[in-house]
Design brief:
The chain is of the alpha+beta class. It is 34% helix and 24% strand. The longest helix has 17 residues. It is globular and about 40 Å long.
């Protein structure tokens, strides 16, 4: 996945915002809470960071091309970085970004969720 494809995908979610910060990284937020980051990679290869469930965190931490996210995971947060995988894993990355968006949006206050029109059928 390219950064343009990443940005297009993240923009497809409801009530998101995009900023460039943390060393030119593409940071995607819902309700002012980060759910995905494109950047922080080494060399010229794209890297994508997202929040995961505890079980997915442990599974992906052992999978080639994935690692606990720099800075975030060292603080005890369950964030993973995909940094070196073949392009045929784009659908898997989309799944994890979608799940990150869902988890972060569900973590917003009920008032904020209602204000943004999120999770009203949950």
């Amino acid at each position: 996945m390219t950064y343009d494809e990443f940005n297009d995908y993240c923009a497809s979610f409801k009530a998101t915002s995009h900023v460039i910060q943390w060393g030119d990284s593409h940071v995607w937020k819902v309700g002012d809470k980060v759910f995905a980051v494109g950047g922080w990679g080494k060399a010229d290869k794209p890297a994508f960071t997202f929040k995961t469930s505890e079980s997915n965190f442990h599974f992906l931490s052992e999978k080639p091309g994935y690692q606990p996210a720099p800075y975030l995971a060292s603080r005890g947060m369950k964030w993973i970085q995909q940094f070196d995988v073949p392009g045929d894993e784009d659908e898997e990355l989309k799944y994890y970004i979608t799940e990150s968006y869902r988890m972060v949006s569900l973590g917003l206050t009920k008032k904020k969720q209602k204000e943004l029109g999120l999770n009203q059928n949950e």
